[in-house]
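Hey, I'm writing a tutorial for new members on how sequence and structure tokens pair up, and I'd like a real worked example in the thread rather than a made-up one. If someone can provide the structure for the chain below, I'll link this post from the tutorial.
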Amino acid sequence: MALRAFTKMHGLGNDFLVLDARDMPLALSPDQVRALANRHTGIGFDQLILIEPSTAADVRLRFWNSDGGEVAACGNGSRAAAALLGGHQNIETAGGLLESQAISDGAAVDMGVPQWDWQAVPLAFAMDTLALPLAWDGFEQPSALSVGNPHAVFFVADATTVPLASIGPVIEHDPVFPQRVNVGFASVKARDHIIARVWERGAGATLACGTGAVAAVAAGQRRGLLDDRVTVDMPGGRLAVTRRDDGHLVLSGPAQVAFTGMIDLERYA
């Protein structure tokens, strides 16, 4: 039996299993991630975060969704890891280089510049990403963009009433999104305030989604609906997204350690 230290964290209820592999390399299989994600027989999480050494930055972060699929970006996960690491960090991810700063109750992470080209999202064919000429069960013309991972953002009158569990997976798996997609619904309450809910690709409905918050604000700003600094209310709590003069979007909000422990990862292989 080889025990491994772990940290369980959450950002507004969006929860993570964090494993530090900087001193001891760790290989994870999709089956192992799914077994660890089971909330009855494993530890349970929305995403797993692996901290690794980097030759391009202070650390490298890798992310897996609870379905066992590795993904390029995770906004709240990046904030959680940044809060755990502390101070200022340059972070390498598959979605690009990030810069983070720990704050009193969590962390702020520079999520970079949103990508709007249809091939960057990606989409199956060329379309206007500001408002896709598509609809699903009455939900129509979402904005499509990449903020390190793909998002489709719908603006609706009341995001709290959207049947996320039924419409989310339909849109996530639509062939127009060859890498699947995160599905967000946002309601604009004021130019500096939105309410948002997200069906996360590979994880389902979560209490908060950092890249979902960034994508919703980016889409609202591109449509002329929102100012540079926006408060985003999600089921688990409140995040802030700020657009800098250089077009970068900074995501900030709380992240906490829930508990720590030791686990025999071989039992979940």
